[in-house]
Amino acid sequence: MFILITTGIYPPKIGGPSQYAKNLKEVFEKRGVKVILKTYTLEDYLPTGIRHLVFFFKIIIPVILSDFIITLDTFSAGLPTVLAAKIFRKKVLLRTGGDFLWEQYTERTRKKVLLKNFYKEEILNLSLKEKIVFKFTKWVFKNVSALIFSTLWQRDIFLKPYEIDLKKTFIIENYYGPKQSDLPFDSYEFIGSSRPLVLKNLDILKKVFEEIKKDFLDVKLTLDSYPYEEFIKKISKCYAVILISLGDISPNLILEAIRFNRPFILTEETGLYDRLKDIGIFVNPLDEREIKEAVLKLLDEKNYKTAKEKILNFNFIHTWDDIAGEFLDIFKKI
Fold first, then answer.
1. What's the number of CA atoms in the CB half-sphere (13 Å) around residue 77?
2. Do 45 and 125 fall within a single domain?
């Protein structure tokens, strides 16, 4: 069997899809499956449209040779991949990540729109470029062989606006790794590593911590991004993790925190709520007071110990081998 994986980012680039592509490739190869992976390189420096065309020609031969294709985003790699798969009559499984259109809209308008409300309230306010992205994304979803979500939450948000065929949809949960070290924290550091985007709600997060530091001088908020290995080292010794985005599908930051038994504060606008509601602190990302109270709660020694125990007792595991097997099962069904 020969599988083509396409992705917009791949190590050393930093991001969830980057690690997802790397690990999926490795586990398929351990199973004896031949894998070729194609990602953006020079395309990153080209204008929208041209970079899609260049990537399309880049993947033609691997598409022809493949038994089936997995693409790990909806637009950058997804659009040219699905087009090539359609031309050469290949099955293509698209695994959605975040929401490129929502991200672009919030960056342009600087408007804080929750993901769950975006398609209900803002779809008529799209720019010409955003309307084109929306139209092409709808075409991509219509022409994939299977559409894979990591959470029901995102699937249900996308179903109506993109007119998705429910029978084409599948759920493959994100990676939940086995527990790693349980080191004592070495400082009152909260890690909230995120890209500097409007939807990440970092202005509110910074404001909250500025207020808290007036009474808790040792508290530190870290927002920088790091290469994966360095990131893991920081997670393993931090006090807690915090993410208050306007919407986060299945954030790797939180899943890594769980592996290292770190308590976390997470936006309630997430696909992970049902899985993690009993072990984390969830907040309304638009309620500054609620966010501040959640941080103060976790800074209390007794509350921290309770939060820690909940994390320690959480033992759900979903390995990369499980994930690869689920991709293969879907391929056999379609």
1. 29
2. yes
With a CB cutoff of 8 Å and minimum separation 6, the contacts of 214 are: none
Residue 138 has pLDDT above 80, yes or no: yes
Residues 138 and 23 placed together within one structural domain of the fold: yes
169 and 210 co-located in one domain: no
Together in a domain, 202 and 126: no
Identify the domain containing residue 87 by its residue range. Answer: 2-175+319-333
Question: What single string gives the DSSP state of each residue in 242-256?
Answer: EE--S-BSS-HHHHH
Q: Is residue 228 part of a domain?
A: yes
pTM: 0.93
Tell me which residue of 145, 58, 105 sits closest to 334, measured CA to CA. Answer: 145
CA pair distance 35, 50, nearest whole angstrom:
26
pLDDT tens-place string over residues 188-240: 999 999 999 999 999 999 999 999 999 999 999 999 988 888 999 999 999 99
In this structure, the answer to whether residues 162 and 242 fall within a common structural domain is no
> What's the CA gap between 85 and 69, in Å, rounded?
8
Q: Which two tokens stand for residue 295?
A: 């941080």
Question: Please, is 166 exposed, middle or buried when counting C-beta atoms within 10 Å of its C-beta (0-12, 13-18, 19+)?
Answer: exposed
**What is the C-alpha to C-alpha distance for residues 282 and 243, in angstroms, rounded to an integer?**
10
- pLDDT tier at 325 (50, 70, 90 boundaries)? very high
In a domain, 181, yes or no: no
Residue pLDDT, tens place only, 232-250: 999 999 999 999 999 999 9
Q: Does 196 share its domain with 151?
A: no
